[in-house]
Structure formats: structure tokens, C-alpha cells
Amino acid sequence: MFNRFTLSRLSTLLTVILLLVISPAIYAQQPVTVNDNINQHIFNFGEIEWLKDTQNKLSFEQISSKDFDQHFIKSIKSTPQTTDLKATYWFRIKIKHNSKASKRYLLEFFDQTIDHVTAYLPQKDGHYKIKEFGDQFNFDQRELHHKNFELYINNDNDETQLYYFKFKSSQISDAIIVLRSVDWFISYALDEYFYFGIFYGMILVFSFYNLIMFIAMRQRQYLYYVLYNLSVGFFEMSTDGIAYQYLWSSATGWNQIAYAFALYATSIFALLFTKELLFVKANAPKLNKFILYIISIRTVLFLYSLIIDQSLLTYKFLEFIPLAVAFYTGIYIYKQGYKPARFFVLGYSFLFIGFTLKFLIMLGFAWLNFGVISYYSLSFCFILEMVFLSFAIGDKLRILKTKEEKVQRQMIHQMAENVKLKDTLNQQLETKVEERTKEVFHKSLIIEAKNAELLAVNDRLQQQAEEISRMNILLEQDNQELQTNVEKVTRDRVMSADVDFEEFSKIYPDKDSCNLFLSELKWKDGYSCRKCKNTHFYSGHITFSRRCSKCGYEESVTAYTVFQNTRIPINKAFYMIFLIYSSKGKISSHKLAEILNIRQSTCWTYGSKIKLLMEERKTVLKKTSKNGWSQLVLD
User: Residue 626 sits in which domain range?
Assistant: First the structure.
């Protein structure tokens, strides 16, 4: 019994001694071993130790001495950060070298916003080589011309060595340190730049498309959307180092504040785009005023930060306020029943999630920082937001088009009613003219009979009979003129109403009648050769064309007119111009295609040309009383 108790106590004592011996090894900084089988290793948690120098006075000799060895703290985060912008941070990592490794290795610092890093790289003889880098240095001074910071390491021994890094930055930066083989780095860098090209290419494509839409439609929402997309791209390029590499590689001063300009522009154009897309001024007047207040306050704060206190530019989380205002505006307008806001809210939901994730990571929620996806989460969310905002713009256009077509149908119905009313009035007028003609004709017969009787009875009435005969001739002329007026009224009605193609074709039934009209319109003031200014001509080889008698230049009837080189049948082209003119350019290309039995794209192309001519000649068109559409024919 005694022996068993003694053995038990001895076993416990040995266990305690063993724990005391091995516990420093457990809690000591773990080295990362260089191995050909490992292409990359990201230092995290206890593999990175840090020390904060609040006085900015510690030297490398002090930091690397044994007295300061216990001052270094193991990182409890996957990625330590420089949260105190006035202090200097020291980081150190431990690498076990392998001289037998065939690959060459380097250290990469993933955060491109670090202002100044002093690296102390151990050498084979025990000394340290000093290298400085950061975004305060010209890009050409980097060891590798890459957006991140890279340093080659000397893997020429089998020792375990400490690497020290001194960080000083004007904004919160991440100590993301990665050990990579050069082969793996090249492959990774090519892939990364490829995806960057896709990302920025999408921004340029979205921006160019909406710029074309702005030029075509002159709606400010497209311009604001273009400027917003470009601001997002500008911000991403400023933060990921692409802009510094390709746009201002030697402008170190501008590199420190470029992101602030991009953030400011992103917020402002996002709010302006929200106002225009969702018709905030009409749908929510109070929110519209509030958005204007936010824009003013953000502008004042930006100018104050830029001119007086540039340290305020580092508070990127302030952009959460404009983002939240735009997000809330979209939700409010959607609840009011405005359907295009649904895609707007969906797009901003993704952006809101990405921004919130970044904000929480910045506040110290390290478990959210789980790699490349979280690091580039805001970029992914920007892409999704751009896609859904494009859907919102398309949805808005679809709704506006539906409303426009409804209004056009109402206009067409009203024009049809007007035509019916005109037809009724014309029929009544024709009936009265016919009755009057019969009445006059009947009276003329009576007068003629009486004249015959009076002629036989009394020669004195001969003069009166001749006068009556002259009156009859005048009446016949009046009848003929009246009939001509009726035809003219009919023609004017056709030229001033929305009639179908069959009725229009009565005026211009075929190609020859259209060409005859063009020749009369084109040379109404006389012929003049465009080459030599000669005024004499012969008939050309083509019907209605004219050939100069002096130089022989032949000019067709459609040359220098809106019908030149058109593939549309000329009588249908006449009718299309007439329809666009009579509807004041409001008839859609789909309606034209339906009426003329021509492809919608052709109607859109030709119709856009006619509408542009109407816009250019609107002053002349206002002065025309009838047949104003003919003013659009000649170039």
C-alpha cells in the first residue's frame, strides 16, 4: 500500500516537471519551414509576433536584443493590424531555412496601403540586411514590379532565423505576410492580373454602354451611373495598387490621398444616381432634400479633410452613411410601389453586405477575415451591384416604354376619332355642295326656258339673256373650282392626319410619283450643277435625273436627299417620314415596323435619322403651315 502511494506521487511529480520543461516549447513562436512541397504559406496567429512603439524611438538593436524578446506579443488574430496610426509597429516571423530546397522563395506583403516598411533580413553570417519599401516610395524602386510588396529571401543555410519588419502607416493596414515560391508567385500573379482585367473590363464595359445611352437619350441617370462606376473602379485601383503601378507610379504624394477622392466621388455620384433613377424628387420630396443635405455635408467634410486635417481622410467607414441613405431611399421608394427600385435594393443589399463585412473586419472581428474571398468581398459586391443596377435601369426603361406605348395608343385613338369627325364634316359639306349645285342647275334651266320665251317675245330682253348666259358660265366655273377645292381638302386631310398606307398611297402610289415629287421639290428654284454651277441640263439616263450640259455630271433625283442610299421602298420611306412628322417624333420603331411591315431595327435606324433632322430643323418646321414633312427631305 505504501509503495503504491509513493509511486503515484512520484508519477505526478514527474508529470509536472515534464510540463514545466516542454511548456516553453509549446508557447514559443513556431517557425515556418521552407519546403519544396509547400508553394506558399500565410503567416497567421502565433506565427506573427508584434510590438507597438508608442514613442517611435526604439531602434532595431534594441528590438532584436534579448531584453526585448519577452516584449513581443503573439498575435491572437489571423491578421494583426496597425490600429494606432501615431505609433510604430514591429513584427517578426521565424523561418527555418532549407539549403537543399531547389526553389527560390520570397516574402510578399499583401496590403498595398502600407506607407513605410523597413525590413531587416537575416544573412548567413548573422548580420541583417535592411530594405525599405511602401507606397511612399516610387514604384520603380521596388525589387519586383508588382502591385504588392515582395522581398527575396536567402535560403542558403539550414538555420532558423528571425525576420523583423517595422511598419509606419497613416491608415490602418494589415500585416499580411506570405511566404511563396517564385514559381508559385508568377502563376498566382498572372491569375490575379487576369481577374483584375476582367473586373476593370466589366467596369469599362458598363460605363461605355451607359455613356452611349446617355449620348442617345440625354438622361442624366446614365451619366451619373457612368461616373459612379468609374469612381468605384478608381477606388479599387487606388486600394489594390493597380493605379500606383500603371497610372501614377512616381506620384507618391497623390498615392496617399487618391483613394479619398475616389471614395468621395463614389458617394456623391451614388446619391445623385439614386435621385435620378428613383425619381426621388417626385416620389419622396423630403428624402430628396435629405440627400442634398448629405451631399453638402460630405463635400464640406471632404474639403476640410483635404485642406486642413488629412488624417480624417483615413476614416473610410464614414462612407457607410451615404450608402445607408441610398439603401434606405431604395427601400422606401420600393414600398411606395415603384417597381424599378426592386433591383436597386437588391444590388445595394450586396454592396451593403460587403461594406459591413469590411467594416466589421476593421473593428477587429478577425473571424470574418477568412482569406481571399473576404479580402476581395467588396469588389465582388461591387460587380453584383453593377449588374443589378443595370437591371434597375432596364426595368425603368421598360416601364417608361409601356407608359409611352399606352399614351401613343390613346393618341392614335384620338386621332382616329378626329379623322372620323373630319370625314363626317366633309360628307356634310359635299352633300350641301351637291344640293346647291342641283339647285343652281335647276334655276339655270328655268332661266334658260324663260330666256327662250322672252327672246321670242321681245328682242329687248336679248341683252338680259346674254347676261344670264354669262352667269351660267361663271356658275360652271364656280362648280369646277368647288370640285377642285374638295379634292384639295381631301389631299390636305391626308397630309395632316394619321392615315393608313393605302390612303397615303393614293397621293404617292408608286416610285415614279415619289420621284416626280422629289424632282419638283429639289429643283423648284431652278437647276444648278453641283460641279460647275451650270444652269442648263439634259435628261439623264435614269428617270427624272438631270445631266449637266457642260461637264456631263449626272445627278439622280434621290441624291442629296434623305432617301439617298436607302434600301426601303421609297413610297414606304415617304410614309415613314410622314408618320414620324405627324406624330412629332413620338411614334416608336416597333409601331413603324408593324405599320410598314419592315424590320424594327431598320425602322429604328431610319427613324432616328428623321427624328434628328426634326430636332435640327424644328425652327423651320414651326413656320410651315402644311406639308411640313417635305422640309425633312433635302439634306
Answer: 504-523+560-635
